[in-house]
Amino acid sequence: MNVPCVRVSTDEGEATRRALADRDLVDQSYEITVHEGTLYIPVTDASAVEDEYEVVSFDVESRETQTMPADILGFEPTYERLGDVVILDEDDAERASRIADAIAESDLRAETVVNRASKVKGALRVRDWDILVDDTDEELSADDQRSSAPSTETVHREYGCEFLLDIAEVYFSPRLATERHRVVQQVTEGERVFDMFAGVGPFVIPMAKRGAEVVGCDLNAAAVEYLRENARRNGVEERVTARQGDVRDVADDYEGWANRIVMNLPHSADDFLDTAVRLAGEECVLHYYDIQHEDDPFGPGIEAIREAAEPQYDVRVDTERVVRSYAPHEYNVCVDVTLTAR
């Protein structure tokens, strides 16, 4: 049957399949097919495939239905995938264990299954996790196990970039991939970008791939080490500077430098607006993330930006965007503004 497929060389086939699978775009109802040295990967939604991939119509065979966790459980569980790690958010430990066992028995690709054991906490924005399934070390000797990577470490692929990270050491949300891509697409070659709360680099790395010079700062030393590694993995280390520390101190070295600033710390970004103004050049685009009540999701953030930037800068609001629902009657939002020096 002719279905939409990503056409790719066999040398790049596995990396492409994993990248598509991480975005749940691989159509499991059809076989991946090799024809005349080229791999054809069936996809569920051709319009969602990144422009870097070639999508064609190709005749592939139907495949036997995979066994999924819902087939074993009798209900559809809720989970999130981050590379080879599957993340649950279950309050009932027994239910979490049942779901984890079903995931392990199913055909879903997963080496580790974890359940959230705490909310994001502390200045480093990390969580506690209960590890329910760990297949990463099952064939290793005792000596090798002691030196192996932690089971909470994984590689996440997003819009052509890959990010090594450990969910026990750093904060990362795959749910924000579409929002990150929206911002990244605005970046042009030669820009100077400062990410004030960079984490492992989900804004920094793709912006550098578009030709920007990017400084990423984070208080979390582990996140900064992963940021440096991810810059190397993605071939942009020459355009990325990773700085560890409080951005209010790091900003001393970059006053008036930035053409674009990312402030993705929605619970307390307003505390750092004075620092953002210090970083801003003559004209600077600011991506400000906030969490506010549905009655006025954008007003408080815009008011805080104006209070910090005026009269030194004119403030033009470019975009008001609801990123996602955060809690009952609360939204995670982004305000894009342009600061122009008077």
UniProtKB/TrEMBL annotation:
Record CDD domains: AdoMet_MTases (cd02440)
GO biological process, one term: tRNA N1-guanine methylation
Top-level lineage group: Archaea
Keyword Cell cycle on entry: no
GO molecular function, one term: tRNA methyltransferase activity
GO cellular component terms attached to this protein's record: cytoplasm
Residue intervals of the SAM-dependent methyltransferase TRM5/TYW2-type domain: 79-341
EC category name: transferase
Entry EC number(s): 2.1.1.-
Keywords, in A-Z order: Cytoplasm, Methyltransferase, S-adenosyl-L-methionine, Transferase, tRNA processing
PANTHER family in the cross-refs: TRNA (GUANINE(37)-N1)-METHYLTRANSFERASE, TRNA METHYLTRANSFERASE
Protein name: Methyltransferase
Annotated source species: Halogeometricum borinquense (strain ATCC 700274 / DSM 11551 / JCM 10706 / KCTC 4070 / PR3)
Highest classification ranks of the organism: Archaea, Methanobacteriati, Methanobacteriota, Stenosarchaea group, Halobacteria
